[in-house]
Design goal:
17 strands, single chain, 23 helices, alpha+beta, four-stranded antiparallel sheet
């Protein structure tokens, strides 16, 4: 065909050369008809003299080949564009020599096309939509197809580059829809469909350009039915047998039971069957209203549940100091439930946390201790934040410049850059695990990224994205649990047809769940009278739920070992239980949060230790009180409180803070003979604080050997830390002070009890 086309073009060119030069070929050429153009993937499909062609960028155009279709049949075929999704595009095709002249949907990649599936029927495009996936945008195509084998029953298809899936509107109910028009409304791309009854549906993405689905809602519009076509007068049909009232009552009871159980798909199907079999009966409108209200209530509950999960994530981010992502989670919660009181309450709590954190450090030495501790923990982004706060309060003095220079030097180091690259590789692996639903593995990879580069902003962003995906998975698992509840209730009532229908519905909607095959096997056994497996399944699920609850409780209490044991037992009992993945992810996330909180605790403990060393007792007490309130599980607050009490007893005249030492002028050079001031180095907490405490206790007891050993060990850790230098000075002063002679006490004379005067 391509050779014939080129030959015709060559002959035409020769012929034109013999004609007057003023004549030019028509553009576009005769027989040209466009089909589709995809600017994102740079593909252009058109027909030339009936044959389809595809052009890609600046490359040569190629003829499109359709499996099972001869080239000679292409010009006589009817073809239309149905849209595109990534590299894949879709065409409607109808020709007398193909599928008995029935219209089919073609799925095409490059110059090859084949049938989308075995279903035949007219198809109409509802539009091409954009979907946000991470940092890239992909396309989706929406189609409406009238299935000829089912008397024109509608199928709404949502097509990606991997294939098409049917949307719940037509999958869960028997609807007969026709395409009306496409356009934009309320800032979104929409498609309007008309049902046979006259109801009008509006279909759009829940979040325009973001959501990977098309949601359809019944609008308030109702159009009168199409006029009936004139038909020849026929003999009156035989009267249909009167429907049984008992059947109608039983059907109404089944619909009501499905609505109460939350099985809306089954209720829709039964209602469609009821209105077809008993048209005009007064029992159906109340049930339709009840179903609509139950569905609206369920949707509202789901939105509130998702908002609460987002609020919990926001509070979790705030507790580890990640306030930007905490606010992002609250904004997502606002979208789910506008004006929700719990969102406003959480926002106030987070604002109070941020204010308390901003007021945590007030003096220069407190910032010095916190910054140096952040250097020791290699949390360079915390160093950057603390330096910014320090410069805002105290300007950019020599201390600021020295630490800022050290920060720049560390970031420029090749070793640190290698660690950044390693963290990025862990983040990529985490995102891949997130995409396949392995949230526990994603959390573990992000922990590794945190270890490689603590506080890396890209890690925090990946953690926020993981939280959103995990919340969406929890909502999906709510749907799975609902279907499992319906199946279990059907097993108990011995209604195995209903149970198998629910199993098939669940398989279509949640194909990633692995438990459907096991449920089908148990249903088959129950049909044969062996319902022991169904009873065992019920008992196993109850035991597994208890263990999952125990694991989550242990995770909340910080007992990670107990939580891991409980989840291991659940895995052995019911490996396909949907709650296991979420509980395991929560455990891994709690472990990561513990590591992130430890950095905050160490910074506060370092600042409190510096305050004690400088006899700033009021500051030390405030920091210890704030630390106990924010992190009550940390055992080091008791030791700091004890040291504070002992220091106050040793200096009873000092009620608050000791006078702050005067800050030397920035330009004044130090005296030549003076001993250089100790440079505040990152304290190692809690080892350093424990060694200093042991040394000071030994100095009080005049046990100079023990004190010397403790100070020497502390100097091995950080020789120039302020607390170490002060401890060395205290030890030297105590050793130089003349010791009072002590004499052994005389042996105690036993005291005789007084004689009994009576």
């Amino acid at each position: 065909m391509a050779k014939r086309f080129l030959l015709v073009a060559a002959v035409a060119a020769v012929g034109l050369g013999n004609v007057a030069s003023a004549q030019t070929p028509a553009y576009p050429p005769a027989g040209y008809a466009p089909l589709l153009f995809d600017p994102t993937d740079t593909k252009y499909v058109f027909r030339l003299n009936g044959a389809p062609w595809i052009c890609r960028g600046d490359t040569f155009c190629k003829p499109v080949k359709i499996e099972g279709v001869a080239d000679k049949d292409l010009p006589q075929a009817a073809m239309d564009s149905l849209g595109f999704a990534g590299p894949r595009y879709f065409l409607s095709y109808k020709q007398t020599n193909f599928e008995k002249g029935k219209p089919v949907v073609l799925s095409c990649v490059e110059e090859r096309c084949g049938k989308l599936d075995a279903t035949v029927g007219d198809a109409h495009p509802l539009g091409t939509f954009q979907v946000k996936q991470g940092d890239r945008t992909v396309t989706r195509a929406a189609l409406l197809r009238q299935v000829e084998a089912r008397n024109g029953r509608a199928q709404l298809l949502w097509c990606a580059d991997s294939g098409c899936s049917e949307l719940p509107l037509t999958r869960d109910a028997e609807l007969y829809l026709s395409h009306m028009d496409n356009g934009r409304s309320d800032g979104r791309s929409m498609a309007w469909l008309r049902e046979k009854s006259g109801a009008v549906f509006s279909c759009a993405q829940p979040e325009d350009g973001i959501s990977d689905q098309l949601a359809c809602e019944k609008s308030k519009l109702v159009l009168s039915d199409f006029p009936a076509a004139a038909a020849p007068t026929a003999a009156p049909a035989a009267a249909a047998p009167a429907a049984s009232d008992a059947d109608r009552v039983a059907l109404a009871a089944s619909i009501d039971r499905a609505i109460v159980a939350g099985d809306f798909a089954n209720a829709d199907r039964l209602l469609a069957d009821a209105t077809r079999r008993y048209a005009g009966n007064a029992a159906w409108p109340p049930l339709q209203q009840k179903l609509a209200k139950a569905r609206a209530d369920r949707d509202a509950q789901l939105r509130l549940a998702e908002a609460r999960r987002l609020i919990a994530e926001a509070l979790r981010f705030a507790r580890v100091g990640d306030f930007p992502h905490a606010e992002a989670m609250l904004q997502d919660a606002d979208k789910q439930a506008p004006g929700f009181a719990e969102t406003a309450k959480a926002r106030n709590e987070i604002a109070a946390m941020r204010t308390a954190r901003d007021q945590r450090y007030r003096e220069r030495y407190q910032y010095h201790a916190a910054i140096d501790q952040a250097f020791a923990a290699e949390r360079l982004w915390d160093v950057e934040r603390l330096l910014a706060e320090y410069a805002q309060r105290f300007n950019q003095d020599d201390e600021y410049r020295s630490r800022a220079g050290r920060l720049a030097q560390l970031r420029a180091d090749a070793t640190w850059q290698a660690r950044i690259n390693q963290a990025r590789s862990f983040i990529v692996t985490a995102r891949q695990a997130t995409d396949r639903g392995d949230f526990a593995e994603a959390e573990r990879q992000l922990v590794l990224a945190d270890r490689a580069a603590p506080g890396f902003p890209e890690t925090n962003q990946a953690r926020a994205d993981l939280s959103r995906r995990r919340i969406a998975a929890e909502q999906q698992q709510d749907g799975i649990r609902l279907i499992l509840g319906v199946i279990d209730a059907a097993f108990q009532r011995k209604q195995y047809d209903e149970a198998e229908r629910a199993i098939e519905d669940g398989r279509r909607r949640y194909g990633s769940y692995d438990g459907w095959t096991d449920l089908q096997r148990r249903s088959a056994n129950a049909r044969q009278g062996n319902d022991r497996q169904a009873n065992e399944l019920r008992a196993q699920n109850a035991r597994a739920l208890e263990l999952v609850t125990a694991a989550r409780r242990s995770t909340t209490q910080g007992d990670f070992a107990a939580a891991d044991r409980s989840l291991t037992q659940v895995q052995a009992i019911s490996a396909t239980m949907p709650e296991i993945a979420i509980a395991r992810a929560e455990l891994e996330r709690a472990k990561a949060d513990r590591a992130r909180q430890d950095a905050e605790i160490r910074a506060m403990a370092a600042s409190a230790d510096a305050a004690l060393a400088r006899k700033q007792y009021a500051d030390a007490e405030r920091l210890i009180t704030d630390g106990k309130k924010a992190y009550p599980s940390y055992a080091g607050w008791a030791d700091l409180s004890r040291r504070l009490a002992e220091a106050r007893q040793a200096t009873p005249a000092l009620k608050g803070n000791a006078p702050m030492p005067a800050q030397p002028a920035a330009t004044a050079p130090p005296p030549a003979a003076a001993t250089p001031a100790p440079v505040a180095a990152p304290p190692v907490i809690p080892q350093l604080a424990q060694l200093i405490a042991v040394a000071r206790e030994a100095i009080k007891r005049s046990d100079f050997a023990t004190a010397e050993k403790a100070v020497a060990e502390a100097e091995k850790l950080v020789a120039k830390a302020a607390s170490v230098v002060e401890a060395r000075a205290e030890l030297k002063g105590a050793q130089d002070k003349p010791q009072e002679k002590t004499f052994p006490a005389p042996p105690a004379t036993p005291v005789q009890p007084p004689a009994n005067r009576n």
